[in-house]
Amino acid sequence: MGSLLDYIGSDTALEKLLTLTLENMSQGLSLLGCDLNYIFINGKCLELLDFPSEFGRPGMKFEDVIRYNAKRGEYGPGDFEEQIAERVARAKEFVNHKFERIRPDGTVIEVEGKFHPGIGFVSTYTDITERKIAEQALHQANDELRLQSSRLREALDLMPMPMLIMDKDDKLVIWNSAYQNDVPKISHFPLKEGMSFRQLLEGVFWEVDGLEEPNISQIIAARLKLHDNYEGPFEEHIDENLWWQTNEYKRDNDDTVIIHVDISEIKEREIQLAHKEAVLQTVFNNMDQGISLFDFDLKLI
Hints:
Layout: H1 4-8, H2 11-23, E1 28-32, E2 38-41, H3 43-48, H4 62-71, H5 80-91, E3 97-102, E4 108-116, E5 120-127, H6 129-157, E6 163-166, E7 172-175, H7 177-186, H8 197-202, H9 215-228, E8 234-239, E9 242-250, E10 256-262, H10 264-285
Antiparallel strand pairs: 1-2, 1-5, 3-4, 4-5, 6-7, 6-10, 8-9, 9-10
């Protein structure tokens, strides 16, 4: 098999092949000579910029193209001659550039121009309207997501109970201010989004109860088992003065909502009541006389 040049066979054929290639590009392309006359403008460029077909002939003056645009309002309100003079003066500098231009019909064209010594100024024109629409939709979606997240944060912070949400991989997603306020009391380190549930447990000040390894590891393993095989509310003795009743709720998206209800006062009353009952029982056990107690239904206590 011969080379491409052998296949083409002549310079004329090569020129035809080059022209065919440039005319079938998905981008608009133009070549502006150093005399500010166009050497080449392909069909896609004429289509994107809505130019008449005669603008594609070699020798078309840059100033005439700019004048055509200015008169049809492509550059917005203002004096036509000033708009033309400004752009012609800028073109004479042959400075590389890249910018986006919004046409009156809303089409967004990305224009990129580069100067090549001995050749001229090559410019490409790409229709990026769909990409800009997608970007705008993404920005709007992100704004809505941020708004929803802010509303969720505000709602969570209004709750008096410590609360946090773990994702399907058991990574911390969000927590409320009540939980944040309790962290300095029970944890070695601050909360951080993405922390695993195990890391949350490992940061607890288990040492307050004088516990050491392997007891701490056993407690963590037991708590993880309760979390992984949740069957209903359970109590947690966090430190000497803090008891939680913990509730976990699995959501449809596999996130887990964990709510802690502070039952410290209830547990304190239970302890006090148990102490009083023990004292009372001791008194009864040391009395010389026999005694019995009945409730209001006359049932023996």
